[in-house]
Amino acid sequence: MSVGDVSKRILLGRKLRSSQLGETLLPKRIALPVFASDALSSVAYAPDEVFIMLAVAGASTYVWSWKIGLAVAVVMLTVIASYRQTVHAYPSGGGDYEVATVNLGRNAGVTVASALLCDYVLTVAVSISSASQYAAGAIPALIGHEATAAVVAVVLLTAMNLRGVRESGAFFAVPTYLFMFAILGMCAYGLLRLLAGDLPDAESAQLVIEPEPGWDGPLTQVALMFLLARAFSSGCAALTGVEAISNGVPAFRKPKSRNAATTLLMLGLIAITMMMSVIVLAKQMSIRFVDPHHLDRLRNSAGGALPDGYEQHPVISQIAAGVFDHFSPGFYFVVSVTGIILVLAANTAFNGFPVLGSILAQDGLAPRSLGSRGDRLAYSNGIVFLAALSILLIWAFDAETTKLIQLYIVGVFVSFNLSQLGMIRHWTRHLKTETDPAARGRMMRSRAINTFGLGMTAVVLVIVLVTKFLSGAWITILAMGFFFLVMQAISRHYAHVELELAADEQDKIMPTRVHAIVLASKLHKPTLRALAFAQATRPNVLEAIYVSIDTKATNRLLEEWDERRLDIPLKVLHSPYREVVRPIVEYAQEIRRASPRGVVAVYIPEYVVGRWWEQLLHNQTALRLKGRLLFSPGVMVISVPYQLRSSQVAQEREMREDERVHAGDLRRGRVSSRESRRKDR
């Protein structure tokens, strides 16, 4: 096994056969952390954004925080109820894209796909950036290097997902469940202390928030509504990731739809409970929280400025520090698992993006390489592509969550709206043909749920666009437009290629003549083999050509040719500028022009070597020549391999790898016990 193969196996694990795809399917206990970690992790930053927006007018507006949390919870329940209809109606994994394409047309589907692609990239960027902020708060050495830490985290997450969805799911399950336990346990203990009357104030409770300019007077009704709308739109970041389950239905064990719907319900109930608990506790502990870039708006109780280097800790950190004021391990446990879950939350996108990319590739809207499964049956190219885009975004915005969050939500709510509208069309179409009263009742109930969901998500989308457009949402809209145009261009390209390659009657016409050319650099075994192979094809004309750049070498070759009395003519092409490739290409093109209905067949002897470094020492001219000749109409390129002794090393290595018994082969019945003992010997 080569060094490259060893490294790949260490990184990814052993290869999986296509027939083992069923072994990678997920039970609900693993599917929940795989697909729900994004929505659950939003508890770590969605409440922060609500308080940041409300703090624009001072701490007095925090009284609205729990009401905004309830509004977000209602929208989340509505969206989850709607997606439960989707996973039953469209279990193939296309999710919003399939719903929109089937019911609203191709352009609507491409719009949804572009929105989801943006959302998945932002999911990784926001989650990892938020985790790097938590890490910098715990490890002072990382302050100022958050972007670098975030990039490293994306690379590690990519490596885990390249090992396959089941392996990554099992790895991520424990931290996700620990996060649920930590947040729910902290909130339960905090609420018990609140009922007992000994819940302490947060570390920032004694601070005073100065309103932003223009918000320091009494708020008019319009200003208050706009402020609440901004806070609500930021809080709706908690809804991101909900759609991932509808895109990942094929990864569930059977019955796929029912398991996916159950996981959706579990996700909704857990996420809402966690979010509302955090918001209520934050309000009761009098937390003061502002935009990290406007810390100068925080004042001490006497109205003076805070000391230089003041660090504003996230909402969950402040709650944990207060709730566990006499039990520091509890605080460190909550902060640690929160930072970890923010990294793992990006795993939702790493499972949704590649599946969506493979579906788009099948439909001709994305490069077909995105539809190929890797050694571990994961869509490796999609995983790497998502990682590259996310790293680019993290580096461009310096891993600042507050900036990235403004780009968030727009894409996912665009897909929400088109998906709900598509589901309404779906149920309306089926109601026209359905006659069973019970089935019609279920369809009408489902349509009512999707109609209500459309109304809610449409309102949220309008609010998001109005409140976030100038703050950065316009970048997301431009990105969606870019993806839309690129996918349309790819679709047109594939359509044109398919039309151009369609077989017709002219393809049956035989060439009038075949002019065969054998390249000769020396008179050795590879050249003689190429000459013999070319003779066996019985062309109309056969000749060998040699490019002369050295007179002595040319004369020596001509003498050897005459001594062997070869009956194949050798033509010498003189190259005064010592070029090898150009004379051959020009000669082949000249023959083609002289006989437009004929074919020029160029035979190129090539060495077959067994070690990667040997490839660097041989065949370089042949590679350049093939690259040039492939663009010449009517010219065919034939490689004639000659296996050097080192090629046997690679062949023997592959044979040993094929014969090796892998762990679990005997248990799975791929080899018998006798074969296993024989191969072990």
From TrEMBL:
A Pfam family: AA_permease_2
Species annotation: Nocardioides astragali
Keywords on record: Membrane, Transmembrane, Transmembrane helix
Region feature (Disordered): 651-681
Main location: membrane
Residue ranges crossing the lipid bilayer per the database entry: 63-83, 104-128, 134-157, 169-192, 222-242, 263-282, 331-356, 377-397, 403-427, 448-466, 472-490
Listed name of the protein: APC family permease
Superkingdom of the organism of origin: Bacteria
Subcellular location: Membrane
Membrane topology annotation: Multi-pass membrane protein
InterPro entries: AA/rel_permease1 (IPR002293), APC_K+_Transporter (IPR053153)
